Amino acid sequence: MKRALAALLAVGLVLAVAVPVSAQPGGDDLPTDPFDRIQELQRRRDEARDKKTGLVGEIEQADVRVRELEKVIGDLQPEVDRLTAELQVRERDLSATVAAEQEAITNTEAARVRLKEARGRARGRVISLYESGPAAIVDAIMGSRDIQAARLRVDYVNAVLQSDRALVDTIRVAETDYRDKADKLEKVRVRQTEVRNQVAAVQKDRATHLDAQKKARDGQAAERDVKKDLLGKVEQDENEYGALLEQERRDLLRVSGLLARVQSGQPIPAGVVAGLLALPAVGPVLSGFGYRTHPIFGDVRFHSGVDLGVPYGDPIHAAASGTVVDAGWMGGYGNAVVIDHGNGIATLYAHMSALAVDVGAAVDTGSVIGYCGSTGYSTGPHLHFEVHVGGEPVDPLPWLGIQ
User: What pLDDT score was predicted for residue 324?
Assistant: First the structure.
């Protein structure tokens, strides 16, 4: 059994012809050689598994970091609340300074108008005095008819002079008031600038204490979510590669396991029985048995059968009488038939376009068992023909009587 299994693994190396990528299971870019294909699938599955392990660790670390940042944010909340309350006070101060500024602007403008009006009246009085001069006052008093009239005119003159002094005082007061209100306006504006700076400082302080931490937490959480999405894809890859790997292994071991079961206890020929088998189809030998340079990949690989150049659709015949023990799709073999001829001898016919027999059918030498095609790992129509003795592949040509 072990020899048969080892031989079948070697058989896997023979399937040297390839199909287009779209014809391969899963539409992947895997090697066409079954044994290499299995190794590559295993490598990819293991690679996906390693990536998954790494991502799980990174996600766990991200979760820990998110929890740490959540704790930092929670610890900072009281300070943030204090800064928020302070910010509200500063904003109220700022609103008050804005109102005070507006009031100061209004008062200053009113004082400026009053000062302007007072200066206008003073300018008019100065012009009047200039035009009449001091002599007009003396003439007005001396021109009185009597003492009583003179006294009234003196009182009038005193009133005028008193009014002039009041006007001067008004101007002085207006100037002082204007300067005071202008100074107050400037102070209000300075205070407003200070409060604005304080508001900005508190906002910056609060952002430093909380916003940066929240951004770090959100960024860490986003990175974690991206890795979780990637983990899902990697797990899907691992499962798909694993499923393909198992299918490939089943396909590769199918023939050896089958022959070991159905040929158990059969005697094995001591040597080659030349000409025991008939040629299954007419066509030149395109590729012989044994190690050869791979026609696609250019490296040396073992070929466990012979490839016969047979036109598409030509009938394939049983090389000897026997019983069909397998018929159907066989992975890289494509549509294939396996016949047990007894005495530990079996033949395999691969890449057929269609089958003409079912499992269990008894066939005679020359019976049509299928038709030539290019199914499985094949680049064109041909017949891949194998001979197994005791479960191991042997060179078919001597058994066909061909030297």
Answer: 95
